[in-house]
Amino acid sequence: SSTTPISPSPPSAIPPFAFAFDIDGVLLHVNQPIPGAAAALQHLHRLNIPFILLTNGGGRYEADRVADLQQRLGLDSMQTRTDAHDPDCAGPLPILSTANFVQSHTPFQELLDNAAGLDDGAGGDEISSGSDGGLRGQTILVTGSDAARVRTIAERYGFRNVIIPADILAAYPAIYPFNPLLKSVYAETARPLPKPLLLEGGNLAVNSGEKALSDTDESNYLRIAAAFVFNDPRDWALDIQILTDMLQARRGLLGTFDPASLSAKGSEGGTRLFFSNSDLLWAAKYHLPRFGQGAFAAAVAGVWAQMVSTEQPPLLSPKGGRSTLLGKPNAATYRFAERTLRQYRASLLEAHASQASPAAKDAPLQTVYMVGDNPDSDIAGANQFSSAHGTDWCSVLVETGVYDPARDKSSPDYLRHRPRAIVNDVRAAVRWALQREG
Ligand code: G3P
Ligand code: MG
User: Could you say which of 325, 343, 366 is where a domain stops?
Assistant: First the structure.
């Protein structure tokens, strides 16, 4: 049962397996800790078994979110592994820090200095902004549940020129012909745009009261190199309008219209759009799952599909689409997560070097137990990444979140992505994995 202790005393080496835990529906439900979650993490920590948290959530800076999780899970009172009575405890590494935490938009930082920063050379799922070099100094558009906060996160990552939809709306109110949903928020958070829009063609300039600009030097006008959806936007209407304007602009020059953008082939050099989370659904307070960022992505893609040639690849298509999807179940996120986990594991090995045998120090990571509640996200991603990869990502499904076993029984197709194990909760998942490892 899920109330019995998991295992006895700590081992003296770092084992060849590790864990990746989903948050919503595994460690927390509606921001409240799921029973046994903190104990499971603490137990692994004492056993020197590395783990990361891997969530499709986002919207707060990593260090702030980690501090919040420590408090919610009660981990701040058991932070270090230093234990005077336990010679196997290796040093002052916290149970949870930004070093073992990956949220939906964490991988965006890979694009600061290298537009193909998450490309492992295998092709297919790599992130590329479509431009040379990194995006650190280029103008990017960001949005999310709180676009002003999301801008701050992007700036803390190191992006230097970050704009939000409110900046565009404040400078060019005619871009959105209705009363804005979040008018006072936009008024409070808008900043001046770094450059004016190139209002080229159509009658937007007339409608807005702006004089049409016809300077031939495009460098004088706002060019959006990439757009990032950090987490679930609230004002879908404004955001879809602006993102669609961006997709049909000529080489990122918002305010222009490139007819080729709507053609079968699409325009050359247009702005790329990044979504950080493709979850259609997630487990919230309501008894049925609620829309996640994947629903917003589907809405943008649906509107765009109505505008363009039916021959054009879908916006969200991994091959040839204009957008990149990150977050579980996408391989780029699993690749980033595994790299983070390996770095974290290396720091544990380092801290533990005095006790570990040379063989243990070199023991490769063989298995990552992905403990998740969403079959279409956590489980699908682990299964797909595992089959394409050297390290085995072993999927373990819990029943404390999105997954509904009653629905599974009534509909054989529901559980399309089969986990290696289905257990009650996170504590049972850890126990199952530790028993499997002997
Ligand atoms: O908005 C967050 C939600 O989509 C899923 O979070 O922790 O279950 O990956 P998580
Ligand atoms: Mg979840």
Answer: 325
User: Would you say residue 12 lies in a domain?
Assistant: no
| Number of domains observed in the structure of the chain | 2
**What is the Cα–Cα distance from 4 to 8, expressed in whole angstroms?**
11
Asked if residue 98 and residue 112 are part of one domain, the reply reads no
Q: Ligand 1: which residues within 6 Å by Cβ?
A: 22-25, 55-57, 277, 279, 282, 292, 374
Q: Which of 245-249, 272-276, 408-412, 425-429 has the lowest mean pLDDT?
A: 408-412
The dihedral of CA 145, 147, 153, 157: what is its sign? positive
For residue 101, give the nearest of 154, 63, 130 by alpha carbon: 63
**Ligand minimally distant from the alpha carbon of residue 54:** 1
- Give the torsion sign (CA, 341, 342, 347, 352): positive
> Which pLDDT value is given to residue 83?
46
Residues 139, 99 share a domain: no
Q: What is the 91 CA–ligand 1 centroid distance (Å)?
A: 31
Q: Tell me what pLDDT residue 217 has.
A: 86
Last residue of a domain, one of 283, 305, 325: 325
Residue 167: inside a domain, yes or no?
yes
* Mutation test residue for ligand 1: of 104, 150, 230, the one with most atoms within 8 Å of CB: 104
Q: Which atom of ligand 1 is nearest to the CA of 327?
A: 9
Q: How many CA atoms lie within 13 A of 391 on its CB side?
A: 24
* d(C-alpha 327, C-alpha 241), whole Å: 24
Report the half-sphere exposure of 125 (CA within 13 A, side-chain side): 18
Q: What is the CATH number of the domain that holds 55?
A: 3.40.50.1000
pLDDT at 281 > cutoff 60? yes
User: Does 183 lie in the same domain as 92?
Assistant: no
Q: Are residues 38 and 54 in the same domain?
A: yes
Under the phi-then-psi rule, with left for phi > 0, alpha for psi from -120 to 50, and beta for the rest, what region is 123? left
**DSSP-assigned beta bridge partners for residue 142:** 228
Q: Which domain holds residue 272?
A: 107-325
Q: Is residue 293 part of a domain?
A: yes
Same domain, 117 and 232: yes
What is the number of the ligand closest to the CA of 277? 1
Radius of gyration over alpha carbons of the chain, in Å?
A: 23
For a mutational test of ligand 1's pocket, the pick from 22, 72, 373, i.e. the residue with the most ligand atoms closer than 8 A to its C-beta, is 22
Task: Kindly state whether residues 85 and 155 are assigned to the same domain.
Answer: no
Both 217 and 245 in a single domain? yes
Question: What was the pLDDT predicted at 84?
Answer: 42
Burial class (CB in 10 A: 0-12, 13-18, 19+), 347: middle
